[in-house]
Every structure is written in structure tokens, then in C-alpha cells.
Amino acid sequence: MLALRILLKEEGNVESAREAAVNNAVRFLFEQRFELFGPYLWLAKPMVRFNEGEEGLNWARGWPWSQGAFHWVEPTSYALLALKIPRPAQAEDIENVLLRGDKFLLEHSCRDGGWNHGNDLCLNVHLSPFAVTSAEALIALQDHSKDGVVQKAFLNLKKTIGYNMSAMSVAWVALAEQSHGKDSSESISALLARQHEDGSFGPNLMVTAISMLALQAHLGNNALKIPT
Amino acid sequence: MDYKEKRCPKTGRLISREQVKSGEGRTNSSSGPLQSNAGITRRTFIAGSVAAVTSYSLSACGGKTLTGKPLPKPTAAQAARKRKTPSIVALVPCQSYEDDPMADLKKFAKQLNLPDLRGKTVLLKPNMVEFHPGRPVTTNPFALKAAFELVDYLGAKNIIIGEGPGHMRDTEFLLEATGLGRMCNKLGTQFVDLNLDELEALDVKDGFSGLTQFFLPRTLMNADFVVSVPKMKTHHWVGMTASMKNFFGAVPGRKYGWPKNLLHIRGIPQCILDLQDLIKPRLALVDAVVAMEGDGPIMGTAKEMGFLVLGDDLAAVDATCARTMGYDPFELEYLRVAGQVVGNINTDAITVLGLELDKVKKNFQLPVTFKNKKLLEQASNQAS
């Protein structure tokens, strides 16, 4: 889905058949969000409105990895990016959806900055951030550069990655830096140092693809950049 | 005063509301323990009362909890899977990771009557769930080496090391940081990332989780003989983790995500038991040289125990591990039911070889959830 959206952004317009596929994928993403109380929405919605006002309906929520599961940082980040690059025109409540997704990420950052997988707190223990999840959330929140949560995450990102210099982590961090207009030359140098002799990065093709995105972004073409 | 709210990320249900000073940014506010009744207003109370009527919709996350419903009494079909013969478990002395336990392992392998593995493909499944410097979260590389040498001694033709880290999907980093990657290279064996492997759909028959199908890695399912090589740890959801719970790391992230949240929602005990039936692991070698106590399986602290645990009945192995940690296995739900559908957990049916259990037993510091059970309920709503 994210790849389709990037393609759409890169090509400017798409053939109608492909556009239909993209629209179907957007619809699918929308349907993956779990609405309040399932079949009892008709009852719950006015109750929440009565209790907390209109604003109460806009609680933060994102996307799950799979149907029936809770919402997590990574699928929410990917879904947000897929919807922001570029924003689909046909979805009526797109702004609300993006707002809630952004809010979900902003409200689930770790105490010290950055993101774990979902919660910042589990069974009374504050969780520590990971480089990959933090970078992914930062890329999805590139239109919130001035938010304190984003700034704190960047401050902690170097610390988070201090002991994690895998190609995957460094590539995501470089993309996060580039998406927020920050200098990524240090991360790119670290990434290049991880390149294998055959030109690949990391243990699988996915890592090579992410590394390619980071390198291309460093050369001025950031496919994950949300258009302003 | 303003309020900081915590909502269930799935349903949006209000979990807690705590007061913060006006103008205080959320990043500066403390995320302390949840206060489920803090800040209740009259309107909240009225709405909450009405809400209680709609029992399904307004229960946390649609009535599901992360620990699942209590396990029912096993059916005849489930009980029929249980091992029929007594079990032998060996507590193999290994004071440090510098020791070479092979002489003892060979001796106990004979006493356990472990099978001839000539011509077989064996998959070793270590625990590499997550990495935190200084915490014994993952299987030590030397325990993995011991397992490798044991199955090599038993004649295995092809030995694969496979793991699908449950929390972190940066496998390259985990292999480096834990030292398990270097050990795989040293042993000259292939590491397979089970999170990204080809998938096989398996029907669940007479299961506990309610799932009708499980998608599992092809490499794992194609192996002739699967060995669990976990770290012995406390576990804040289910008490302790060793050889059976280790197979959560065999469930592919590419299908279920990171973490593998669906397994928690369907019930950890339920999924542990279903995975035992589907994967049918044949042997366990547990790393209890340095175990984890306290807030395991990730944030706990090291506990030196000085042994490995070997056995071909994973229920008996885990029950024995639990006893060395000071647990009564019958008080841990998944172990109790494993004793009815997997293997033996009763001491009468387990012969312990090697070190004497009573002499190596240490009372572990328990996870905070076993001191304050309300935390589990709160965490179910938090989607932790």
C-alpha cells in the first residue's frame, strides 16, 4: 500500500485501473481501524458525546498489525504514511483519521523520548524506545516537526541507536532525519559502512530496499517525504 | 486542572483519567500507575452506569483480555495427546558459560534414550526476543552451542538455527548484539529468520485458542526434529517462561506483526498449548546457567543458577524449571493444563537426573504482576 502511494506521488497521475487499486487499498486501510464498540456504536457514540463532548469522539487511535489486535506504532506509522503521501481525495473523513492516528503516536511515546512498539508503559514499567520504531514514527510525524514529542524523540534517537548500528536501524534513522530536514550525513556514512561487497545491505532484500530509499533521500529524492 | 487520559487503543474506551496541572505538556507529565477511578465526574458516572448495560460492547476491548479466559477442562481429544510414559529431566551442571557440559550431556542423552538423528534435519530454536545490555533476556550463545553439539553427537545431518524475534524485527542487530550470530557463523550453520520465512497454513484441531488456523514458518514445519533452546525466566503475564512459551518466537511476524499481539489476545496459555500440538517439539535444552528473575521476560535481573535443563517432555522440563525457581507448577495455569494435554508435571512421573532439585532451587523474585494481580487487568486495557 505504501509502495502504491509512493508510486502515485512519483508519477503524478496513474492509469484509471491502477487508481482504482489504490482507492481500494485506501478503503481497506480505513476499514482496518476499529470503530468504537462495534455493533453498539449507535448507543456508545451519543453516550461518549454526552459525557465528553464532540472532542471526546476524537480519541487517539491507529492501526493494528492484524484484524482483532490492538493498535501499534509500526502499522500506524505505515498507514499514516500511506495516507499522507499524497492524501487521498476521496476519503471524507481523512483529516479526522490522520488527526487521530497522529495523536495515537504522539500519546504513546516513551518517557525518555522515542517509541517502543505500542505503549510507553507496561505493567508499571516504563518501556525503552527502539531505533526502528522511533524512526518510523518520526517519519510518519514529519508534519509535526515542532511538537515536543518529536523533538524529544530526536534527542534520544542517537542514544537509542548508540548500540544498534544495523543497516536497517541506520537506514530508518537516516530517513527520519531527512524527512525532518535534519543532517543525515553521519547516519549515511554508518549505513555505507554496512554495505556488503555484492552491494546489498543487511540480511534480506527488505533491508536493502530501505537502505536504497535512505541513500536516494540523501541524494535529494526522499520518497517518504510528505508533500507540503 | 486539565486531565491526561488513557484510552484503549482498540476501542477508544477511557481507561484512566489523571489530573495534571494546567499548561503542563504531556511529555513532561509522569506516566505513573493507572488510576482507573481518578477524575470521575457525575456525567462520567451516569454514562458509565448506562454503559454497564451493554456488557459486550463496553467491556474492555470487546470482552477480551490479553491473558484470555481461564482455560477450560481439556476435552477427551485434547487429553489424548498427553505423553503416556513417565519422563526424565536432567539438571546438567554448568556453573558458567566457560564450562563445557558435553560430557554430561552425552551421558544424560543415553539415560534419556534420545533418538538417533542420523539423516535428520534438526531445527534449534533459541530465544532472541529482544536485547537490553546487561540483562539476560536471550539464550546465551554457549547454550546454543551445547544444543548444537548434542544433536550433532546424536547424528543430525542438517542443523538449522531458527528464530523469529517476538519484539524486535531488526534481526541483524539482534544477532550481533546477543552474540548468537557470531556463534552461528562459528558453528558454520544457517540462521533462518522465522519472522520472514515462507508460511504454511495449519488447521488447528481441538485447540484452546479458538483460532482455526495458524500460519507457521515452513522451515520449522519441514524440520524432522525441533529442539527448544530457551532462557529460563520469570514472565509477568504467565509466571515463568522456558521451553514451551519459547515457541511464540516461532510464530511469523510477517503474518502476526511485532509483537505477536494476536497470541496475547487469544490467550497466552491457550496459544502456548496450541503451538505445542502443531509444532510437536521433541527436545528441550534450557539455558538456566544465568536465569532471569523479577520483571521478566525483558526487564528482570540476572539470577545465577548454574545448570542446563535437558528433557524430551517439554511439560516436564518446564515444570522442573518452575520448581527450581520456587514456583508450584500447578499454580501456573498453562503448566497445569500442559500437565493434562502435553506431558508430565507431577513429581511422581518425573525422574530428575544430575543435580538435586532441592539443592539448586532458589526462590526467584516474582514479577510485580504476581504481587499485584490488578495490574494484569489494567494492562489488558492498555494493550501492552
Structural commentary:
The complex is a heterodimer of chains A (228) and B (384). Chain A has 228 residues and is mainly α. In chain A, 55% of the residues lie in helices and 4% in strands. Chain A has helices at residues 2-11, 16-32, 41-52, 73-84, 94-107, 131-140, 148-161, 167-179, 185-193, 205-218; strands at 63-64, 71-72, 121-122, 125-126. Chain A has a two-stranded antiparallel ribbon. In chain B, strands 3, 4, 5, 6, 9, 10, 11, 12, 13 and 14 form a 10-stranded mixed sheet that branches. In chain B, strands 1-2 form a two-stranded antiparallel sheet. Chain B is globular, with a radius of gyration of 22 Å. Chain B has helices spanning 42-53, 55-58, 76-79, 102-111, 141-153, 171-178, 180-187, 218-222, 253-256, 261-265, 268-279, 314-324, 333-341, 357-360, 374-382, and strands spanning 2-7, 14-20, 87-93, 121-126, 158-163, 190-193, 199-203, 213-217, 225-229, 231-235, 239-241, 283-293, 301-311, 350-354. Chain B is an alpha/beta fold. Helices cover 31% and strands 22% of the residues of chain B. The longest helix of chain B is centred in the middle third of the chain and has 13 residues, at 141-153. In chain B, helix 4 (102-111) crosses helix 5 and helix 11 (268-279) packs parallel to helix 13. Chain B has one domain (41-379). Chains A and B meet through helix 3, strand 2, helix 5, strand 3 and strand 4 of A and helix 1, helix 2, helix 6, helix 10 and helix 15 of B.
Figure out the total of helices of chain A: 10
Which word captures the global form of chain B? globular
Q: How many beta strands in the DSSP annotation of chain A?
A: 4
Assembly state of the chains shown: heterodimer
Shape of chain A: globular
Number of helices of chain B: 15
Biggest sheet statistics of chain B: 10 strands, mixed
Gyration radius of chain B (Cα, Å) is 22 Å
Through-space gap between termini of chain B: 28 Å
The topology string of helices and strands of chain B comes to EEHHHEHEHEHHEEEHEEEHHHEEHHEHH
Q: Tally of extended strands of chain B?
A: 14
Strand % of chain A is under 5%
> Could you describe the largest sheet of chain A, including whether it forms a barrel?
2 strands, antiparallel
What do the pLDDT scores of chain B average to? 84
Structural class of chain A: mainly alpha
Alpha carbon gyration radius of chain A: 18 Å
